[in-house]
Amino acid sequence: AGSQREYELLFKLKATLGGNFSSTFKTAVDAQKRLADSTKQINSLQSKIDGYQKASSAIERNRGKLTQLTAEHDRLQAELQETVQKKKALQRAMETAEAEGNIEDYKRLQNELSATGREHDRLKEKLNGNKSQIQQTTATIEDQERALDSLGRELREAGVNTDDLEGANQRLQKSYDGLKTSQANLQRLNEEQNRIKESISSTKTQLLGTVGAFSAVAAALYAGPVQAAQSYETALAKVSTIADTQAVPLEKFSQEIMALSNSTGVAATAIAEDVYNAISAGQKSGDAVNFVTNSTMLAKAGFAETSQTLDVLTTILNAYGMSADKVGTVSDMLVQIQNKGKVTVGELSSVMGKI
After folding, report:
1. For 22-76, what is each residue's pLDDT tens digit?
2. Which of the chain's ends, N or C, has fewer CB atoms near its CB within 10 Å?
3. Which residue intervals of 197-305 are DSSP H helices?
4. Do 55 and 140 meet the contact criterion of CB atoms below 8 Å apart?
5. Cβ distance 53 to 168 under 8 Å?
6. CB 326 within 8 A of CB 309
7. DSSP one-letter code for 197
8. How far apart are alpha carbons 240 and 254 in whole angstroms?
């Protein structure tokens, strides 16, 4: 219905402008398109700068986590070695007690040896878990550094100094503001040209009606599908700056995001932003949309925003070293906590890190 109305307005405009419609309208549209392409390029660069900064922060967080895991590994290794030495000492003492016929000491030492063995097994299991987390975190950092290097090359090729991203952003913003001013000036010139065009065989009243019709068409196009499409395109471009598009092509990301948007009623732009945040938080590209699907459903069930559910799910999975396929199980647990306790999932998201 909206498209039909736009076409009706265009036909009315053509009827008023007569034979000059094509050249006048095409000139205005071409100029607007060139300016729109320029602003689109600036938006893309600003999105890449934002992605670079977020990717850098994510790497620093994971490096801090790796430092903590390494320190824990050294501590566990030392404690495990202590239990080995203690076991050897207890075995020697048991042999002495047995040789001397001291049954009471022998039984006591035997109980201590069993307890030390259990402690040894516990520390060994914990050390294995620690090693797994170190390997996983190291692999994540390597993936993130490769993505950051690739994004850095793109920015440098586009003339952006990655050592001065704040300054680059300010210069881009000034260029963007200048282009928007040019667009406004062009619009005013087009309107003035339409007002004074001698070849239009209409009265002044009809001409003002034509300008009104043109404005209605422009407003319908820019405020409707064009603006929505540009917002989504920008959000999807952000995803491409951090995602592994070899593992998951950008077209597939878009298809899955659109499908999730249609099934949940959540705007595709918002879902794309959530996918970007999920990957930034350490989720693999192939798991990101499924992860966001679970966080979106959890948000609806848990009286929370998707940003909150993304945060609480990534916090839990990262803290316990869980794989991405456990996200559904963790989501169900959170809903059960909400159902059985006096707390919502949204409230849990603000304290789960401390827990």
Report:
1. 455 455 445 455 545 555 565 566 666 667 677 778 878 888 888 898 898 899 8
2. N
3. 204-221, 227-242, 250-264, 268-280, 285-301
4. no
5. no
6. no
7. -
8. 11
